[in-house]
Inverse folding.
């Protein structure tokens, strides 16, 4: 069976790696000239080792908690398992090398068009869209549009070896600070029309001048097509955490569900929706509750509590 994967992000590469190991003939189409996501904080839980054991050598720092700074109260959230600071660009290229070792064909600098998708659907028995927030595969299937938030990140040349991150909640997101040992990262995730101004004001108040500013759109909202031959995975399917926007572990879990049910995309749709739907709903409710308490009744929040960082419970 010939399989086409649109997008050489972490989910597309992981699926190509595992499908090729099972004997499928896999081709990956990537629009960029090189592999590697650059606009990402690269903060992953230790679950990443389950999917990509080789990633242990890429760890820059270990994070055990986050300080959340509401205007009138700060509390600490401890993680049940550590989060790891890893350069997403390096992680993608690590998996790409594993993919190439299995004989997968990766076609770079190939911006798939709607006409290309018609040809690909004719030439391949299965097509998997892993083409990110602005997925052409999703658009071509006339599926609903996910919710979008904008993430902006930058860096200051200040070494920081702390074992916790800091966040400052905004109305629909938060500003963050991540220690990366040799430098410190700041950023924001918010509604696209508000993110830039909120970050600018924060930086002005704290006298920061960020370097290497970059931005990316984050898609949220589980969207899986009812289609026997074409499906979506990762951020193309809106699989990002409602409270943080992180999507790597969720995407890889969905990829494993897809692999378990492959090549039956309808069974995959049913299984992935069963796994994620209640978790997404619960996390949205918890996030809204915490934000309401933090901004309106902050004294009701405990000074410290523990969560399972990828699913809250």
């Amino acid at each position: 069976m010939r399989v086409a994967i649109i997008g050489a992000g972490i989910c597309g590469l992981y699926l190509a790696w595992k499908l090729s190991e099972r004997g499928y003939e896999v081709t990956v189409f990537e629009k960029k000239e090189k592999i590697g996501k650059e606009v990402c904080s690269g903060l992953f839980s230790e679950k990443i080792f389950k999917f990509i054991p080789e990633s242990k050598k890429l760890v820059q720092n270990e994070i055990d908690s986050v300080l959340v700074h509401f205007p009138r109260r700060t509390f600490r959230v401890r993680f049940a398992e550590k989060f790891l600071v890893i350069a997403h660009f390096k992680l993608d290229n690590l998996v790409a090398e594993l993919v190439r070792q299995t004989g997968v064909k990766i076609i770079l600098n190939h911006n798939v068009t709607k006409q290309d998708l018609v040809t690909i659907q004719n030439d391949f028995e299965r097509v998997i869209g892993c083409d990110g927030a602005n997925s052409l595969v999703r658009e071509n299937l006339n599926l609903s549009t996910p919710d979008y938030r904008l993430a902006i990140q930058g860096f200051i040349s200040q070494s920081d070896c702390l074992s916790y991150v800091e966040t400052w909640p905004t109305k629909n997101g938060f500003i963050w600070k991540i220690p990366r040992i040799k430098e410190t990262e700041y950023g924001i995730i918010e509604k696209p029309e508000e993110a830039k101004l909120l970050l600018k004001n924060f930086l002005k108040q704290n006298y920061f001048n960020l370097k290497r500013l970059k931005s990316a759109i984050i898609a949220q909202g589980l969207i899986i097509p009812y289609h026997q031959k074409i499906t979506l995975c990762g951020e193309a399917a809106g699989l990002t955490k409602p409270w943080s926007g992180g999507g790597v572990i969720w995407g890889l879990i969905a990829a494993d569900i897809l692999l378990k049910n492959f090549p039956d995309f309808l069974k995959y749709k049913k299984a992935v929706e069963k796994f994620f739907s209640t978790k997404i709903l619960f996390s949205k409710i918890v996030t809204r509750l915490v934000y309401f308490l933090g901004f309106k009744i902050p004294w009701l929040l405990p000074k410290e509590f523990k969560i399972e960082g990828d699913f809250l419970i």
Notes: The mean pLDDT is 95. The two ends are 39 Å apart (CA to CA). Residues 129 and 232 are 5 Å apart (CA to CA).
